[in-house]
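Field reference: "sequence" (input) and "structure" (output). Example, cytochrome-c oxidase:
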Amino acid sequence: MSAASHQGTTPYYFVPGPSRHPVLASVGLFFVILGAGQWINGHGWGAYSLLFGLLWWAFVLQQWFREAIGESEGGLYGDRVDVSFRWSMSWFIFSEVMFFAAFFGALYWARVHAVPSLGSLDNAVLWPDFKGGWPSAVPGATASPAGIVEPFYTMGPWPLPTINTALLLTSGVTLTIAHHALVAGQRSKTILWMWITVLLGITFLGVQAYEYWHAYNELNLKLSSGIYGSTFFMLTGFHGFHVFVGMLMLLFITIRLMKGHFTPERHFGFEGAAWYWHFVDVVWLGLYIVVYWM
């Protein structure tokens, strides 16, 4: 570890030394991607590769974060590093905005342009009596021949998506209360509201898991259900993954609070996780309106 220069006990700008963690994390991601691809294509060993990669990746990240937390608690991160962290988290969230914007754009293009355009073509291009509505294969519409796209029901906003909307909005409020308590130096109150926020996030994931079960078993809505099914599971699935990541962030922050980390003046780790969680809330509101209501 090195620094450009020092001012008292805190470096002018702390620069960590060479680390093995990025390379080791990449190894874990390799097995995750390899296993997921093989599992989706019906190779049983892919599940073991996926599990191994996830466990390896989690272990490396745990060691990496432990080292970073030690540097932070050791007073190596000054104001300039804090500014760098804020810019880094801001750009990361911006990249996530672009990530979801691409998927929202794909949904818009399919609904407004692609499917209506296909419906205006000659039937020989698709199949007889194809209707260019949204979605294109539901009871009452014409499904594709030979069961390529089976009839299915769409997922409406009530009750599960609405319940999840209430859960996420409430979690945003409880997280804000926890932040104000931390700034006021009320650690016990902060920990209480953080645990409530984490539990709300876990409940959201549980409701979404049940929603997927309901979609597959009662609505016959699957990933193979045409463009509607693929966009539905793509958007809600990726959002669910982000909720899971955000919930883990909040859980680790809560554990750090219980260990006495963070002060009313310096707590960017808390703020960064809060920014991410509020971003997840906003994305869900867009999903709730565009995917479930429209």
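Strands lie at 2-3, 6-7, 10-11, 14-15.
The chain has seven helices and four strands.
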